[in-house]
Design brief:
By secondary structure, the protein is α/β, with parallel strands linked by helices. It folds into two domains: 142 residues, Periplasmic binding protein-like II (D-Maltodextrin-Binding Protein, domain 2, 3-Layer(aba) Sandwich), CATH 3.40.190.10; 99 residues, Periplasmic binding protein-like II (D-Maltodextrin-Binding Protein, domain 2, 3-Layer(aba) Sandwich). It contains nine helices and twelve strands. Strands 5, 8, 9, 10 and 12 form a five-stranded mixed sheet that branches. Strands 3-11-4 form a three-stranded antiparallel sheet, with helices on both faces. The longest helix has 20 residues. About 2% of the residues have low confidence.
Length: 281
């Protein structure tokens, strides 16, 4: 009799725990992903909520993911750049997930122009050199707002071919993507510049539906706890530590730009949330 009661109790608890589970859907197909890992870590600090994280398992362009979250179409959260316009329609969780790394940029150049940024150029001279960008990117607006000449393309892959054909002078890419993108286009007449870094403040943050305030609070709490106990930095270093150390050791010249499109509430004052890759001394 006692055995039957115990079995019934275990089944009852299992059913109820399952009933109270909250499934959180992340965009894209199942894959190794830093943002998925850090979200999973953040949600682990709210065990009473029994959050269950899974991929949407269908590719959607980023604009459609935003629309999906706004309309409660099945995706609950996305990691994306902090932009003022996005805050009008989505709820931002203002914690910079990659410590501003998207704002540290290394140029891809044509192989004929590997010395494009030598000798050291003045800021005025630097701004006269033409960058290539996709016309819909927020980075395009940032560069133009700093009076940098920008040649715009309508196709991402086409930009690499435009650079190879000398349609513009350089293609600034984040330190997280420049090596991979170069490797993917080795057959083209391009190279990675070895002299400079371009920097402007950026933040990659989580966004959720504006009504999903409790979930947003749990994510924010979890990120802060992960930062406090060191697990955030452990995950961050696992994914990006090697790249960061490589760039720091290169001791590149840095050109600092402004970002007038960064929301004012992004916590730039919290130095522990950002990385400075400029050479010291």
């Amino acid at each position: 009799m006692r055995s039957s009661c115990l079995c019934f109790l275990l089944i009852f608890l299992s059913i109820n725990l399952s009933a109270f589970a909250q499934t959180i859907v992340f965009p894209g197909n199942e894959r190794p992903d830093y943002y998925f890992d850090i979200l999973k870590q953040a949600l682990s600090y709210s065990p009473d909520k029994n959050y269950q994280l899974q991929f949407y398992n269908e590719y959607l362009p980023k604009a459609r993911v935003f629309e999906n979250i706004i309309t409660n179409g099945g995706i609950d959260i996305i990691a994306a750049g902090a932009i003022k316009d996005r805050e009008k329609v989505l709820l931002p969780i203002r914690f910079p997930l990659v410590k501003g790394l998207f704002g540290w940029r290394i140029p891809l150049v044509n192989k004929k122009n590997v010395d494009l940024f030598l000798p050291k150029l003045s800021v005025k001279e630097f701004k006269k050199i033409t960058a290539g960008q996709l016309h819909i990117w927020s980075d395009t607006k940032i560069l133009e707002s700093n009076n940098i000449l920008v040649k715009k393309g309508s196709n991402y892959q086409g930009l690499f071919h435009m650079l190879a054909a000398e349609r513009f002078d350089y293609f600034p890419r984040s330190i997280m993507e420049v090596q991979r993108e170069f490797n993917d286009h080795k057959d083209l007449n391009i190279a990675i510049d070895s002299n400079i870094l371009i920097h402007y403040p950026t933040a990659y943050i989580f966004y959720v539906n504006k009504q999903n305030t409790t979930f947003a609070d749990d994510v924010r709490y979890g990120l802060e706890q992960a930062l406090k106990d060191g697990s955030f930095d452990t995950l961050f270093s696992k994914h990006y530590g090697e790249i960061i150390n490589h760039v720091i050791n290169e001791k590149r010249i840095v050109y600092h730009l402004n970002n007038p499109f960064l929301p004012k509430k992004v916590p730039l004052h919290r130095k522990e949330l950002w990385l400075d890759l400029a050479p010291k001394g």
